[in-house]
Structure formats: structure tokens, C-alpha cells
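Researcher: Here's the sequence for the chain we discussed earlier.
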Amino acid sequence: MAIFSDIHSVCKQLYSQGWLANCDGNVSARTTPNQINITPKGKPKAYLLEKDMVSINIDPWDVVHKNASSEQAMHKFIYAKVDTAAAVVHAHPPYATAWGLQRDLKYLPSNMLSEGILACGDIPISSYCVPGTASMGSSLEEHLPEHKVIILAHHGAITWGTSLDEAYFGMERLEHIAKTLYLAKTLGDPVSLKQEQVDHLYQLRKQIGDVIL
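Model: Thanks. This is the structure I predict for it:
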């Protein structure tokens, strides 16, 4: 079970990587089947105190707790829909966020980077919803439970895992893939893998399972 020091460590990592600014982002961890600890609203995540953390119920997922993160609906919706979700991380990593600004893009281009497929499979881009509203939760439904790594259109990214480490490393993996694809685009016209090669990678991913590597 994740305790405050674990959550705070993740928050400091997100901040040090430049994936959060000021009061951005939020991190949570399940403490009981129907309860989570989540970071508060309106406070820089790198400088939290244990007393700042908020304990809230998952059900009903669309009821707002006044002291918890304003984006709590995303977290609670994932926990409500995925029994194995133990932690959720939301941040604004610049490269992944930039891919979420592209017109009509539904997924990161998975036909270019082999380790992207092997490490986490498809990475979808969810539809835009106004931050802090319940629709931010329900917009994730089509991607759950198959996807642990999701870009939020015009609004950063969210990851979940069966542990806090997996949720954090999902964000790390996402930003590495997003940056690599961006650099490939800036160098010219990146070459896609052949379809049979892509199919083979997805077969390997299926053998690995749904863990984020």
C-alpha cells in the first residue's frame, strides 16, 4: 500500500523531470477497495506535507470532494472501472502533451517504434473534456481497462498501474516515446515498420502481458 512518502516521492520526480509546473498534476493511491488517498487541489505537488493529502471514497465517482484535486473524477473513475488499479498519476509531460494537440490524432504512431509497442502497446489520445469536470472521468471509459497509458487531448496525460511504481513508470515511458517520435519527425520523414513487423511486435506484447515495461 502506498503511503505519503511514496506519493510525495512520485510528485517530486514528476516535478524534477519538468512534467509538472506549480500546482499542476495529481497523484493517488488506493488504500481500501472503496477509498483512495489523493493530492489536494491548489498546492504545488513537490512541496506537499502529509497533512495536505485527502482521503476520499471512490463510489460515487462523480461526487466532488472540496479539498481533493479538482481532477479527482479521472482518478475515481479509473478505480471504479478497474479493480486492479492501485495508483493513478496525472501530469503534463511536454512532448506527450504536444502530441495531444495534433488534429484528429487518435493514437501515438505505434508503427514506428518497436519498444513503444513492446513496453505498453497502443497509446490512445482521449477526447477533450473541460478540466475539473466529471466528463473527464467518463471520457476515459472507452480506453479502460485495456490501456494503462493515455494521452488527454489538450491536457497532459494519465497513467494507472497495479502499483504506484508502475503508474509513475508509465508516465516516464510515455514521455520517452513521445519525445523520440517528435525528434524523428523533426529530422525528416520517419520510416514506419512494415505491417508484418508491427503484427509480430504486438504478438510479443501479448505474450508479455499488460504490464508497463
